[in-house]
Predict the structure of LysR family transcriptional regulator.
Amino acid sequence: MNTQQLEYLREAVRAGSFSRAADTLGLNQSVLSRQVAALEQEMGCPLLRRHGRGVIPTAAGERLLELAAGFLQQVAQIKAEGKAADRDLAGVFKLGVPMFFSQSIAPKLMASVQRQYPALTFVVREGHSGDLHDWLLAGELSAAVIYEPKRPRQLAGDLLFLEPVYVVGSRDLARRHGLDLDQGLTLEQLARLPLLIPTRRHGTRLDLDQAMKQLQLTPHIVHEVDALGARMLLVRDGVGVTIFESAGLLSERRDPHLFVVPIVAPPFFHKLMWVDGREQQAGAPWRAFTHAVKRDIVQLRAGLGDVDMPTTDPRLPRP
């Protein structure tokens, strides 16, 4: 027996039929009837009498609801107080995010937090992986979405999703190098192309260096540029190719002069983690808040497609 089954039974009695009760609860009628049947089986007696026009409670059903009324009222009060506490949650929460969040996820995330927690000041601070790492250790962030930490003993967290990394270049450069883009590019092919890449403050660079080293490849780096805008200007001029997270390539995918293809053989992904800061807020309301933010991030990223979600937190939704 659980609270939900008692609430379903109560609503069926109030409505006088499973169909009307299901409409009120926003459920499929079969789900409602199965839950009530399971409750009857556990109680060992019928709780409702079914007839052509609906249902009425049996004597046992009336007695059960009479005994459960006070309990259900207390549960409803606790739920209402919990929602009120969420809306009254106040203070400042500073979330660090990687660069690609700005255009693809951050705006909708901030709007969602504002709707759910209007009294809370929610600050999103963008930075490269090295910056986010340093800000977390310095206590300047409440939490961060960060590439898998290179020093895991200092920073540990929950895996949110695997972010694919793509190669971006001009179609003119692809023709000059005779690239077949139908199946993507291998790391070996990428190593032979003129590469525009961020410095080692950026998680993309660190992951690429490691992947190249494992395959004993030496990339042909022509420029190190952290600023994505500058890199993309060089890409459009045909100076070289760059790599970037899939979720950040919204406009580039629509540009007929550019190609955007995945890295294959082996596939190349970033691990995106949720890491709490050293001075994280304590208490159940804050834990509920951080869970809600993680849930929203997972759902927003899943909505963009082209991502894997092997989350380590079983409470987070699977897309």
User: Anything to note?
Assistant: The mean pLDDT is 83.
